[in-house]
Design a protein that fits this description.
With 232 residues, the protein is of the alpha/beta class. It is 30% helix and 22% strand. It has a seven-stranded mixed sheet with strand order 3-2-1-4-5-12-11. Helix 3 links the parallel strand 2 and strand 3. One of its GO terms (biological process) is methylation.
Length: 232
């Protein structure tokens, strides 16, 4: 998601000025640092970060940013029920239909649906599930998977390919398979008027914004222009 920071994400955050931001999936903390730096410019701004095993010095960031940084270690679907509201959210954690769909359902239950940024709507995980912890996904939603790699245009897994260190679904496409499928299914079933904007480079970025004429109507139009002029 760091690829989209300068051209798309930061301009939208400057425009919308969210106070409480939720980040799902921190990894090495590159986007976490950007979000904390932004939150420091907003009155009352803070970041709630969710990750079972962050790959950076959490205590150092707590010392640097104080109560603007709230690190919660664990799986997103266990932690999100305890977060009652936020203004913006970043979903870049477990790239599979079950997790992403139910993360979105948690945000839908909040009093006000936040602006949501999602990574990996394109290949390889737009139409294929990936599991960091297969046992955390209910069996009825878990696709057959293996720790094998992926190649563009090849549905079957291969011995040498992209991301062979994680559990990848054995095939692409089909029902309830992949991040983009989860987003499409959620929007189709939601009672809220939501609009999805997409940037197609670097594994893909999606932005979901409530479509409310007179409030977010103009925001949706501005986001379209930001994406079209981002040169990504």
């Amino acid at each position: 998601m760091i690829h989209f920071w300068n051209g798309i994400i930061h301009p939208i955050l400057r425009l919308t000025q969210p106070r409480t931001i939720v980040e799902i999936g921190c990894a090495q903390g590159y986007n976490t640092m950007n979000l904390l730096s932004f939150a420091s410019t907003v009155e009352g701004g803070r970041l709630i970060a969710i990750d079972p095993s962050p790959l950076f010095d959490v205590e150092q960031l707590i010392q640097q940013f104080g109560d603007r940084f709230d690190m919660r270690r664990g799986l997103s679907l266990d932690i999100l029920p305890h977060i009652l509201s936020c203004d913006a959210a970043f979903i870049d954690g477990d790239h599979n239909w079950y997790t992403v769909y139910h993360e979105l359902k948690h945000f839908e239950r909040m009093e006000r649906f936040p602006i949501i940024f999602l990574h990996d709507l394109e290949w390889p995980y737009g139409r294929r599930d990936m599991y960091y912890f297969p046992e955390s996904i209910p069996a009825e939603y878990r696709k057959p998977s293996a720790m094998k790699g992926i190649l563009p245009g090849v549905s079957e897994l291969v011995e040498n390919g992209h991301n062979s260190s994680v559990h990848n679904a054995e095939y692409e496409y089909g029902e309830k398979n992949g991040v983009l499928t989860a987003v499409e299914d959620f929007i189709a079933q939601s009672s809220l008027p939501l609009e999805l904007h997409r940037a197609h480079s670097q594994f893909g970025l999606g932005i979901i914004i409530p479509y409310v004429r007179g409030i977010n109507f103009h925001l949706n139009e501005i986001v379209k222009r930001i994406i079209s002029h981002s040169n990504l």
